[in-house]
Amino acid sequence: MVALSLKIGIGNVVKTMQFEPSTMIYDACRIIRERVPEAQIGQPNDFGLFLSDEDPKKGIWLEAGKALDYYMLRNGDTLEYRKKQRPLKIRMLDGTVKTVMVDDSKTMSDLLMTICARIGKRNCWFRLVPALFWRWRCCWLIFW
């Protein structure tokens, strides 16, 4: 089988690596951590591969349990080895701001369940509305 040559971005460093198309994403992350010194920071489970798009609002996280060929990657495609966890500021209806660590690789419904659990709300009939003045790093948590 022909090896797949991918550009792996880690911070501001880009390395070209070759993988078998049948390589699982989890194994690809392990290989990246072993071969690239810049990737050896933090816990391995906190990082994943992100396939970005020209539009910065688009892109997908590659699931650890799937193979590279599932995503129909081509030679020369760029994947980012990036941290999945990030802080998200939530402004409550009473004006208080709470910061919650969220996993960017999860779906929006999973994020909402995580956020509700972390701020102590049992009922998850809420929705998140982006607050434009905080440059998409904050959301309003409102009743639905």
UniProtKB/TrEMBL annotation:
Protein name: Talin N-terminal F0 domain-containing protein
Annotated InterPro entries: FERM_f0 (IPR032425), Ubiquitin-like_domsf (IPR029071)
One term of GO molecular function: integrin binding
One Pfam family linked to the record: FERM_f0
GO BP of this protein: actin cytoskeleton organization; cell-cell adhesion
Cellular component aspect of the GO annotation: cytoplasm; focal adhesion; plasma membrane
Domain Talin N-terminal F0 residues, every copy: 4-83
Species name: Leptobrachium leishanense (Leishan spiny toad)
PANTHER family membership: TALIN, TALIN-1
